[in-house]
């Protein structure tokens, strides 16, 4: 997720990042899809263009990759801001669970658990990182650093 070129590299191959995972806009199924890339996204691309139009562009023109890159970068920035806010507000585990449930709605769950196996494994492996994030959050107030993300 934090590979610096991931959003633009995947866009060059006609793949858009969406809350449910990835959307391959080069696939023939997109040729007549009149929905936006992500109906919940408020980026310029999702407000303006359909999947069918972008499908046409990514199969024939570099402009398609540029539009998908714009959307992917917008998506990653919003996701990063949401993660930052959830750490500050102490709701990171809930946001993390919601994110994985969207990506894996059909299952991939471990031993009948309500959480996907990847989430359980990731939480157990990264508990130290989460504790560090929460410790940093509690230190913000004593250091005088704002606990709110920048407003734009």
From TrEMBL:
EC nos? 2.4.2.29
Cellular-component GO terms for this entry:
cytosol
One GO term (biological process): tRNA modification
Q: Which Pfam families match?
A: TGT
Task: Kindly state which keywords UniProt assigns to this record, in alphabetical order.
Answer: Glycosyltransferase, Transferase, Zinc
Record-level Gene Ontology MF annotations: tRNA-guanosine(34) queuine transglycosylase activity
Note whether Nuclease occurs among the keywords: no
- Domain tRNA-guanine(15) transglycosylase-like: start-end pairs: 1-102
Task: Note whether rRNA processing occurs among the keywords.
Answer: no
Q: Which InterPro entries match?
A: TGT-like_sf, tRNA_ribo_trans-like
Q: Which NCBIfam families match?
A: tgt_general
Q: What is this protein called?
A: tRNA-guanine(34) transglycosylase
